[in-house]
Specification:
Elements lengths: L4 H9 L9 H10 L1 E5 L4 E3 L7 E14 L2 E6 L4 E2 L2 H4 L7 E15 H8 L3 H28 L4 H10 L1 E5 L4 E3 L7 E7 L2 E4 L5 E5 L4 E2 L13 E4 L3 E7 H5 L2 H16 L10 E7 L6 H13 L4 E5 H8 L14 H14 L2 E5 L6 H9 L2 E7 L20 E8 L9 H7 L4 E6 L3 H12 L3 E5 L8 H11 L6 E5 L1 H12 L3 H10 L19 H11 L12 E7 L4 E5 L4 H8 L9 E2 L6 E4 L8 H8 L3 E6 L18 H9 L11 H11 L2 H5 L1 H4 L2 E4 L13 H20 L8
Parallel strand pairs: 15-17, 15-18, 16-17, 18-19, 19-20, 21-22, 21-27, 22-23, 27-28
Antiparallel strand pairs: 1-6, 2-6, 3-4, 3-5, 3-6, 7-14, 8-13, 9-12, 9-14, 10-11, 10-13, 23-24, 23-26, 25-26
Helix pairs in contact: 1-2, 5-11, 9-14, 15-25, 16-19, 18-19
């Protein structure tokens, strides 16, 4: 231990940390330092605890461990916890004395801040010199997990060959066709990996590996990787990575896991989410608190507002540091630590246009525009920050009063804000908040429902089974009968409503009003009135608590149409407009003629996966896969009179031909059979039902059909949720 004040000054002057400081400044620092005696094997600082001081080792030796792994050994003259002087972080490592004990000098953060209030260049010097150690401590546990390093020498050797690379949002790490030269370990940030067809293969975050195919001998890249937000990677030459058996084994385990796990696209979507108030008084803080509680149950989560940041730094105004401000660098470094150390970071933006609000937009992987639904989207208070990066997902959260039964006026909000999705929540309704948390975290459950005539009643049984097994439904997509059933569930949020719907549609008199068949066999007034009665004349899709989408086919443009806004009954009417049976629907604006969506996509599971991306997709395929089991007997030309005669008379040759209604209904789904066959490509679970038990025209036999759906869905869900030889991922 230095015996005099002058010795402390010399000790500080020898530190790389304070090189460049004048003698007077070193002396000022020395006057603030206090001696500390550490017994053998005693802990100096513990990983995860708040940092409030820096230490300089004067005598003895210190051992540094991260997550139980030794990453460094410190000798006299080395520094411990220098980042605590810049920020208010949790310690990222545990430091303890060895068997000989240690003697240190301690500098408290509070004293340091007082000293540097008029000496900002000291902060800048400390900020620049602290980065290498931070990099080493962040990388150490990943190297231990991936390469199996156990000693400080091994860690140092690997660290020396790793190229530390900073990437900005939108940067391309590598492209398809690039030569294979490096394997990348993600230290912070998030990366999207796409295949040759441009489809997202996976999202890789902290601790993951990108470009791992290099270790199995690929000469050129078959995938591309792009940064979804700012971050860092450690690039290792292919030879180093491929030469490590532990690394190759970890990569093989990753690849195997992606091929075999039950729900490979579930859970890790949150990242950095900015909650931005766009109306005066929007309850953004309360919303963030509710989300934090839920997200924390799944992964490490931290919520940061300008007030919280100022409190963590112990000084007012740090959160607003920008540009040349002396605290801008330390703030950026500390926020970077937060994104590295937590799976979920919730940034609560200021209501005013401040530097912190701007920073929230810049850091976010996703932006939630939070508005009080009682406000007007046209008011002067409703605004957002236009400088947001174009590739950042942006969603609208409308917060309603707890007494709200059904949202209204959502269309005007969607007209005012260009968003990818919207959410309705009540802060006092746990199910609303649970649904939003699942959507943010990649744990949402979406259901895609096929067409299939009366077979579509099996979907009602599926919803009953989901309710009994307490599997939530966060998004519904449907075609034809799937739209009919799914729309009712999204509206009422209860499976029992489907039984009431089936009873109405089980009576043909409620639907069939035959007319001169110049446009269709029916006038379609009855089915239109029934749909308006069931769903409500003014109920709109965008106002539903559970997001709902249905599809129709445009005869005008030969394209699929996805209905995500507008009157619910009219969207379902278009999706169920079986050509030849019901009249087509003229789209709003009168520029398109729409018919049953089954003509082009009878099971919109692909659309649901594209919308949900990460999360669980359940596909319900009511399409039997083959025609109803009756054996047919008819010639190359068929007389309708002959068919009628064979039905009436008990004698003579019987003509068994498919009915006009049956042919029309079944023909609508044939074009979408390829999607049906590939449902498993998009879904985590595909529920099917035996065609022999359900007929497409038996609308009056709805009770039995619902029971068939319930029975088979229950069996499928039970096997999926509780597989015999593995746990659900």
């Amino acid at each position: 231990m230095p015996a005099s004040y002058e010795d402390v000054v010399r000790l500080l002057g020898d530190l790389t940390l304070f090189q460049g400081l004048e003698t007077e400044e070193l002396a000022a620092l020395a006057r603030l330092m206090q001696p500390v005696e550490v017994p053998a094997n005693a802990v100096v600082v513990r990983q995860g605890e708040p940092g409030d001081a820096m230490y300089v080792l004067a005598h003895g030796r210190l051992r540094v461990t991260v997550d139980g792994s030794t990453v460094d050994n410190l000798d006299p003259g080395d520094v411990v916890g220098e980042m605590a002087l810049l920020t208010a972080p949790e310690r990222n490592a545990t430091v303890a004395a060895t068997e000989q004990g240690a003697k240190l000098w301690r500098l408290d953060r509070g004293d340091f801040e007082k000293l540097t209030a008029d000496r900002p260049h000291i902060l800048a010097a400390l900020h620049a010199s602290g980065k290498p150690r931070l990099q080493r401590s962040q990388l150490a546990p990943m190297l231990s997990a991936r390469f199996g390093v156990e000693t400080d020498a091994e860690l140092t050797a690997l660290h020396s060959v790793a190229a530390w690379r900073r990437v900005s949002r939108g940067d391309v790490l590598y492209r398809i066709g690039d030569p294979v030269d490096y394997v990348y370990l993600v230290v912070s940030g998030r990366f999207e990996v796409r295949d040759g067809q441009g489809e997202v293969d996976r999202i890789v975050s902290r601790g993951g590996v990108v470009g791992e195919a290099a270790v199995i001998g690929q000469a050129v890249r078959t995938h591309g990787a792009v940064a979804l937000r700012d971050g860092h990677v450690a690039a290792f030459p292919v030879g180093i990575a491929a030469g490590s058996p532990r690394f190759v084994a970890s990569v093989a385990a990753d690849l195997l896991g992606r091929l075999t796990r039950a729900a490979p696209r579930t859970g890790s979507a949150s990242g950095v989410v900015a909650l931005v108030p766009v109306t005066a008084g929007a309850p953004v803080t309360s919303l963030a608190s509710s989300l934090d509680q839920r997200l924390s149950a799944w992964a490490s989560t931290v919520t940061l507002s300008s007030k919280i940041v100022d409190q963590r730094f112990g000084r007012v105004g740090v959160a607003q540091a920008d540009g040349e401000d002396e605290m801008a660098g330390p703030l950026s470094l500390w926020l970077e630590q937060q994104t590295r150390g937590h799976e979920n970071v919730l940034l609560v933006a200021d209501e005013a246009d401040t530097a912190w609000r701007k920073r929230c937009f810049e850091l976010a992987d996703k932006v939630l525009l939070v508005a009080s639904a009682a406000s007007s989207p046209d008011s002067g208070a409703a605004r957002e920050t236009p400088s947001q990066a174009a590739d950042v997902g942006r969603e609208l959260v409308l917060v309603h009063s707890d007494a709200t039964q059904m949202p209204t006026g959502t269309a005007s909000w969607l007209d005012a804000h260009a968003v990818d999705a919207h959410h309705h929540v009540r802060l006092g309704e746990g199910k609303d908040l649970d649904r939003l948390a699942r959507r943010l975290s990649g744990r949402a459950v979406g259901v895609a429902l096929s067409g299939g005539g009366a077979r579509g009643y099996v979907h009602i049984g599926l919803f009953r089974a989901l309710e009994e097994m307490e599997v939530p439904v966060d998004v519904v997509y449907g075609t034809s009968m799937g739209a009919l059933v799914g729309g009712m569930y999204a509206l009422t949020r209860e499976a029992a409503a489907g039984d009431r719907l089936a009873a109405r549609f089980g009576d043909r008199r409620q639907l069939m009003d035959r007319t001169l068949p110049l446009v269709a066999l029916t006038r379609s007034r009855k089915v239109t009135q029934t749909l308006r009665s069931l769903y409500g004349d003014e109920t709109r899709i965008e106002d539903l608590w559970i997001p709902f989408f249905c599809v129709s086919a445009s005869l005008t443009n030969a394209e699929l149409r996805v209905h995500d806004r507008g009157r619910l009954w009219r969207a379902v009417r278009a999706s169920t407009a079986i050509p030849g049976i019901f009249t087509p629907v003229l789209a709003d604006g009168g520029d398109e003629v729409l018919v049953d969506g089954g003509v082009m996509n009878n099971l919109p599971v692909d659309l649901l996966r594209a919308f949900l991306r990460e999360g669980t997709v359940i596909a319900s395929n009511a399409y039997g896969g083959k025609a109803d089991g009756k054996r047919m007997a008819f010639g190359d030309d068929v007389s309708g009179w002959a068919v009628l005669r064979s039905k009436i008379l008990p004698f003579g040759r019987k003509v068994r031909a498919p009915s006009l209604l049956g042919t029309l209904m079944r023909s609508t789904s044939l074009a979408g059979k390829s999607v049906l066959d590939e449902a498993a490509r998009y879904a985590d679970l595909v529920v099917t039902y035996p065609s022999s038990e359900v007929r497409s025209l038996e609308f009056d036999n709805y009770a039995e059909t619902i029971e068939v759906g319930y029975r088979h869905a229950s069996e499928a869900l039970q096997g999926w949720l509780h597989p015999p030889h593995r746990d659900r991922v």
